[in-house]
Amino acid sequence: MQAKLIDGKAVSAALREQLKEEVAALAEDGITPGLAVVIVGDDPASKVYVRNKKKACEELGLHSEEYALPAETTQEELLALVDKLNKKPDIDGILVQLPLPAHLDEKAVIEAISPDKDVDAFSAVNVGKIMIGDYKFLPCTPAGIMELIKSTGIEVKGRECVVVGRSNIVGKPMAMLLLHQHGTVTICHSRTADLPSVTRRADILVVAVGRAKFVTADMVKPGAVVIDVGMNRDENGKLCGDVDFAEVAEVAGAITPVPGGVGPMTITMLMRNTITAAKK
Ligand SMILES: Nc1nc(=O)c2c([nH]1)NC[C@@H]1CN(c3ccc(C(=O)N[C@@H](CCC(=O)O)C(=O)O)cc3)C=[N+]21
């Protein structure tokens, strides 16, 4: 392996030390940031994330509440809970774990969360604010990736940045954040013609397609920074990313592992957003 490993756990740990100081400063004013996590149904992978979020809250001294609702929960029941949390004074951030079971209207639930408590920054108002560069919260995964890129010391300004994947929660906001830092940004997706020729232009390559080992060494420019957002299970049930780590690490200049890359950063940014929300 010739690439430098981008250690999401280490970058996370350093940021969490700073956040602890912010929490301590808020405590002097009698403020404890509070996060509510709502999970509907019992997807085992979702449970892992929810557990990691709760652990991070405990580590930083945040108040956290978990609402585990049965898979049969109705839209009305879920909206009633969101409404209650919107009004709950000790809750600053609300996260409804996605995806929701198919009978629930995800969009309506996201829009029901008060924009001031929308720590995922998924609602239309918050997405719009990101577009115009006037935001309070950044979406957690793209924000965490910007911190990882910063940790490599590479400057985004003027560079070729290629984002593979165009989801509302990762690909699109990711492209916008790179653009804010003056990157030259290309978004690719499943219909992109000759994808390898596009990804090979990237100085910074962010991959969020949800397909195990989708990016191979021939798709990567030598020396590129490669960020892997994937969370897949391989044939043996082992967690793996969208990038074929073993072979791409021979070509890239720096690369994130899965696990231990983007995942921990997502949670750290969620903590940061909750603290920001508590500052009012
Ligand atoms: N409203 C909402 N907001 C989210 O932010 C959200 C969501 N829904 N639904 C699911 C995805 C996924 N996600 C992850 C967060 C942390 C890890 C994480 O901590 N990963 C660790 C370990 C994971 C493991 O061991 O299984 C790592 O990569 O090292 C992973 C995935 C947040 N999501």
TrEMBL record:
Keywords: Amino-acid biosynthesis, Histidine biosynthesis, Hydrolase, Methionine biosynthesis, Multifunctional enzyme, NADP, One-carbon metabolism, Oxidoreductase, Purine biosynthesis
Ranges for domain Tetrahydrofolate dehydrogenase/cyclohydrolase catalytic: 6-120
Binding, NADP(+): G165, R166, S167
Quaternary assembly: Homodimer.
Catalyzed reactions per annotation: (6R)-5,10-methenyltetrahydrofolate + H2O = (6R)-10-formyltetrahydrofolate + H(+); (6R)-5,10-methylene-5,6,7,8-tetrahydrofolate + NADP(+) = (6R)-5,10-methenyltetrahydrofolate + NADPH
PANTHER family per UniProt: C-1-TETRAHYDROFOLATE SYNTHASE, CYTOPLASMIC (PTHR48099:SF5), C-1-TETRAHYDROFOLATE SYNTHASE, CYTOPLASMIC-RELATED (PTHR48099)
Entry's Gene Ontology molecular function annotations: methenyltetrahydrofolate cyclohydrolase activity; methylenetetrahydrofolate dehydrogenase (NADP+) activity
GO cellular component, one term: cytosol
Protein name from the UniProt record: Bifunctional protein FolD
Tetrahydrofolate dehydrogenase/cyclohydrolase NAD(P)-binding domain ranges (all copies): 139-280
A Pfam family assignment: THF_DHG_CYH_C
Primary role: Catalyzes the oxidation of 5,10-methylenetetrahydrofolate to 5,10-methenyltetrahydrofolate and then the hydrolysis of 5,10-methenyltetrahydrofolate to 10-formyltetrahydrofolate.
One Gene Ontology biological process: methionine biosynthetic process
Native organism: Anaerotruncus massiliensis
Pathway it works in: One-carbon metabolism; tetrahydrofolate interconversion
EC numbers: 1.5.1.5, 3.5.4.9
Family stated for the protein in its record: Belongs to the tetrahydrofolate dehydrogenase/cyclohydrolase family.
Lineage of the organism: Bacteria, Bacillati, Bacillota, Clostridia, Eubacteriales
